[in-house]
Amino acid sequence: MVARMILGVVALCCAQPVLAQERAPLVLAAASLQESMNAAADSWANQGHRRPVISFAASSALARQVQAGGKADLFASADEEWMDVLQKDGLLADRRRSAFLGNRLVVIAPAGQGGRVTTRTLAKTLSAGPLAMADTDSVPAGKYGKAALERLGAWPMIAPHVVRAENVRAALALVERGAAPYGIVYATDAKASSRVRVVGMFPAASHPPITYPLARLKASTNPAAEGFRRFLISAQGKAIFRRFGFSTR
After folding, report:
1. 97-135 b/e with 16+ CB inside 10 Å = b?
2. Is-contact 27 228, C-beta < 8 A?
3. Which stretches of the chain score pLDDT less than 70?
4. Cα Rg for the chain, rounded, in angstroms?
5. Which residues in the chain belong to E strands, given as ranges?
6. What's the rounded Cα separation, in Å, for the pair 20 and 49?
């Protein structure tokens, strides 16, 4: 009887799920990935893993955090440039970087307001009042937006009216609150909000390709991080991001 009880305890200990052995990966992710990355983390957790801890902010702020020695396992940026900076600094794990998502750039207005914006009416319309954009010097969404406006010849007229936000979601919030009649955000941001509507879309050729690279950081020591990275770039993971409007690579 005692022997059977001992064997039962041993079997119970051996049957403890992987969950008890894993540490939750820490992921730094671009602000525009909020809904999609959280959904991916939930799916990963439903498969018996610890749910990743995710910190959302502008890609520029997150990259600087890594440069300053901040601890994290994975970084998902909204552009290649900030990932290039970390790679140049030797902060990425070897062969653990991949481009896995794409996006589109759109003009938004509060729901029920704002007329259709075309490339011909862009300069006149967006210079009539405050235009919400992520910071055009450092934040990917702002940099893409500025590049598009420059290519279309509208930047000199619009620049004095730009209200710079700390990230693309902050720009979205300004339009949601009616603090700005128009804003430039990603198509996925517009899709995530019922309080704004898309009134224009930038031609893909008017700005550099919007690419989201994902990488494991060199300082990461958590084995679970590699599993989550591979899940994100798998067919199953990419299907989650497509539900939220991203294109996949």
Report:
1. bebbbebbbbbbbbeeebeebebeebbebbbeebbbbbb
2. yes
3. 1-20
4. 21
5. 26-30, 53-57, 74-76, 92-102, 105-110, 131-134, 162-165, 182-186, 196-201, 211-217, 247-248
6. 9
Query: What totals of helices (H) and strands (E) does the chain contain, helices first?
Result: 11, 11
Beta carbons of 151 and 206 less than 8 angstroms apart: yes
Q: Which helix (H) or strand (E) holds 144?
A: helix 140-151
Beta bridge partners of 101: 212, 248
pLDDT at position 22 is 79
- The model scores a pTM over 0.70: yes
Helix (H, G, I), strand (E, B) or coil at 139: coil
pLDDT at 9: 42
Q: Tokens at residue 97, please?
A: 């970087």
- Token reading at 81: 């440039």
Taking Cα atoms as reference points, which of 209, 208, 232 lies closest to residue 27? 232
| Predicted pLDDT at 114 | 82
Report the distance separating Cα 57 and Cα 180, nearest Å: 21
The Cα–Cα gap between 21 and 223 comes to: 11
Torsion angle, CA of 175/178/180/181, rounded to 10 degrees?
90
Q: What strand order describes the sheet that includes 247-248?
A: 53-57, 26-30, 74-76, 211-217, 92-102, 247-248
Q: Going along 14-118, which residue ranges are E strands?
A: 26-30, 53-57, 74-76, 92-102, 105-110
